[in-house]
Amino acid sequence: MSPDNTSVLLIYTGGTIGMIENAETGALENFNFEQLQKHVPELQRFTFRIDTYQFDPPMDSSDMDPEAWRKLVRVISDNYNRYTGFVILHGTDTMAYTASALSFMLEGLSKPVILTGSQLPIGVLRTDGKENLLTSIEIATACRSNGQPIVPEVCIFFENHLMRGNRTTKMNAENFNAFRSFNYPVLASAGIHIKYNNVQIQVHGNRNELKPHYLLDTNIAVLKLFPGIQENVIEAVLSTKGLKAVVLETYGSGNAPRKTWFLQRLHDACEQGIVIVNVTQCSSGTVEMERYETGYQLMQAGIVCGYDSTTESAVTKLMFLLGHDYSPAKVRELMSRPLAGEITV
User: Fold this and answer.
1) Bridge partners of 87?
2) Which mean pLDDT values do the consecutive 10-residue runs of the chain (345 residues) have?
3) Per-domain residue ranges for the chain?
4) Most buried residue, 150, 209, 310, 327, by most Cβ within 10 Å?
5) How far apart are CA 285 and CA 280, in angstroms?
6) How far is CA 153 from CA 135, 166, 178, 334, in A?
7) Euclidean distance between CA atoms 293 and 256, whole angstroms
8) CA–CA separation, 259 vs 109, rounded Å?
9) In a 3-state reduction of DSSP, which class is residue 189?
10) Is the dihedral of CA 292, 293, 298, 301 positive or negative?
11) What confidence score (pLDDT) does residue 1 get?
């Protein structure tokens, strides 16, 4: 694609990448996009058009919520035909949730949507933000010889690795390699050249129409098991008013206690129409409920296998499906198959 018809929309939501240190207090404060350009003069060297959209005021990623996701979907949808690709600057803490949500909300996506950010503000000498931003822009505009985008999906780019957004988890608050895609290979590695892992990238045979979705239902809980968990805790979660779904974080390959009261509580909740999805607490690996008796008993109770889903992906996928007002049976069925490459069945 020639520079003449290449363009990227840079969406700045907030986060560390766009912060500056207050000289008096030492606290990090949001600053605006013009200053970002001042700190990254290399942006001027791209030969194509870079336009910007800014959240006002910028959001700390801890405050990101479905309303902010809808806003991002609207911005991308409204500008979809005007740009080659999109880069979203986002705080790292909830980036994996946003990337997962967008992967479901942007149905039929055939252009790159790359989320990135940094562990150090862009004004700091040793910042990782500059490299992440410049490479993300390059990936968002990368096309094949036939003009098709190389990576037409929602991704996170961080510390030299491009990862599928709904496969990614933040696993480090200290180092530059903050994110990892444990159960799916990286889509590209950036060294001297950017090497694309074409086999792993989702490519649709034809140019789909983008179908943006805005309906999300947040009546969900995450329940993490631990040895000695009390019945009243399980009961309190499962009897939450309005609860429609639970992401159950189990041990190993999807195992849980075999106590009668525990299995009975889960069974009763499933009978009442609450969708319970079993994901593993392990960073890597998949839920195999047929493997051990403890997992098999969960399956008998009506619990859905989450396979190798991240918690972030399971949570946002449930919000997405519940937002469509599907029946519990339909939600269970759709949780068991990949909608955007989020699980390996």
Assistant:
1) 10, 114
2) 77 84 71 71 88 89 96 98 96 96 97 93 81 95 92 95 96 81 95 94 76 97 97 97 97 93 96 97 92 86 95 98 96 96 94
3) 3-212, 220-336
4) 310
5) 8
6) 16, 10, 21, 20
7) 10
8) 45
9) strand
10) positive
11) 47
* Pairing mode, strands 7-12 and 49-54: parallel
Buried b (16+ CB within 10 A) or exposed e, 18-38: bbbeeeeeeebebbeeeebee
pTM: 0.94
C-alpha 95/C-alpha 117 separation (Å) is 9
- Its CATH class, for the domain covering 220-336, is alpha beta
- Distance, in Å, from the CA atom of 287 to the CA atom of 81, rounded to the nearest integer, reads 40
The single residue listed with the structure tokens 């034809």 is 206
- Any binding-site annotation on 280? no
CB burial readout 222-260, b (16+ within 10 A) else e: ebebeeeeeeeebeebbeeeebbbbbbbbbbbbbbbeee
3-state secondary structure (DSSP) of residue 316: helix
Q: What is the pLDDT of residue 169?
A: 94
Q: Is 92 annotated as a binding residue?
A: yes
* Catalytically active residues, by annotation: 16, 92
Q: How many CA atoms lie within 13 A of 337 on its CB side?
A: 4
Distance separating alpha carbons of residues 184 and 202, to the nearest angstrom? 12
Q: Annotated binding residue at 308? A: no
Q: What is the pLDDT of residue 41?
A: 82
- Quote the CATH superfamily of domain 3-212: L-asparaginase, N-terminal domain (3.40.50.1170)
- Looking at residue 20, its pLDDT comes to 72
CA distance 213 to 201: 22
N-term to C-term CA, the chain: 36
pLDDT of residue 121: 79
